[in-house]
Amino acid sequence: MLFLAGISASAVLLLICIFALLVECQKRRLVKEKQIFFQQNGGLLLYEQIRSKQVDTVRIFTREELENATNNFDSSRELGRGGHGTVYKGIFKDGRVVAIKCSKVMNMVQKDEFAQEMVILSQINHRNVVKLLGCCLEVEVPMLVYECIPNGTLFELMHGKNRRLSISLDTRLRIAQESAEALAYLHSSASPPIVHGDVKSPNILLGDNYTAKVTDFGASRMLPTDEIQFMTMVQGTIGYLDPEYLQERQLTEKSDVYSFGVVLLELITTKFAIYSDSAGEKKNLASSFLLAMKENGLQFILDKNILDFEAELLQEIAQLAKCCLSMRGEERPLMRDVAERLRSIRSTWREQLIQNPSRETECLLENSSHYDPSSTGQHGSLMALDLESGR
């Protein structure tokens, strides 16, 4: 009996040793895997950039930190899902709330470019661009950590099922102006210039007082001076895609201008980029708008809630949108000119408010209608669900 007991004890001890050895091997394998991912994703380059102080605003998070912040990326923490990945709400131990974007699988070329893009994006400092806080490189596909914007997206504001209908013209113009200024900054002030590549209402977040914040740089490209960026695969969203880019596979700043023109149409028509008419037929908003302009039928496509405003003012906005939607990129204005024009139009409008106090009171009453992002089921989202896949 003692002999059998000794054999049993030895067998148990052996099993324990084997199990411990397997656990240790698994730990070492995971550590090695993290190191490999870190190097593949440009972690060493980014780390050196941080040490040299070229980047002092980006933090490198560990995988465990982000898993704990998202409750292991639980589905209840999901804020939105798009063509480039899924966004989760993260809450750190100190109470900070962030948005964590888990991107889809990238190829090796994209991974090689990732660290340098992180360096560029980390240096973007504009109040109308969502701030990048850091990244995690210990995973196969790098995860990005952004500031969390609490009031949903422009898409939800304009198209949410339970939204308030009264959105003042001044608010619409301000959102357009701020979005245009953010894109102008990317095109003209970033070095090298950055083309967003997927401008659309779901990628414009709304902060306090409807402050616009451009987000989602999953399709963005840096454009070195005097170089043309040809794309082997078109990225973007149906309804917003630049026809010239779609045909020639050449991504330029003017591609963003076209997409912004569609966003401007959403603001003044409250229609989807691809919408259904009264007969249930699918229509392209840009095409419908251009046809309405050609046939002097602008009043039939504009949002009825702004039709009683000065016709000259609405015509100016429509004319700007028309310029942005030119089929030829070279005929479209630069984004900084679009921003300046919107600033001028809005300034004129506000002067009219001062001269007509009753109109100003009406505008203030409209602004008091608070938008409830929870009505769309995307409260605090960083990215709305793509309704038009087209990526």
From TrEMBL:
ATP binds at K101. It is a single-pass type I membrane protein. One of its GO terms (cellular component) is plasma membrane. GO terms for molecular function: ATP binding; protein serine/threonine kinase activity. Keywords: ATP-binding, Kinase, Membrane, Nucleotide-binding, Serine/threonine-protein kinase, Signal, Transferase, Transmembrane, Transmembrane helix. Residues 1-25 form the signal peptide. One of its GO terms (biological process) is cell surface receptor signaling pathway. It is found in: Membrane. Its main location: membrane. InterPro entries: Kinase-like_dom_sf (IPR011009), Prot_kinase_dom (IPR000719), Protein_kinase_ATP_BS (IPR017441), Ser/Thr_kinase_AS (IPR008271), WAK-like (IPR045274). Belongs to the protein kinase superfamily. This is Protein kinase domain-containing protein.
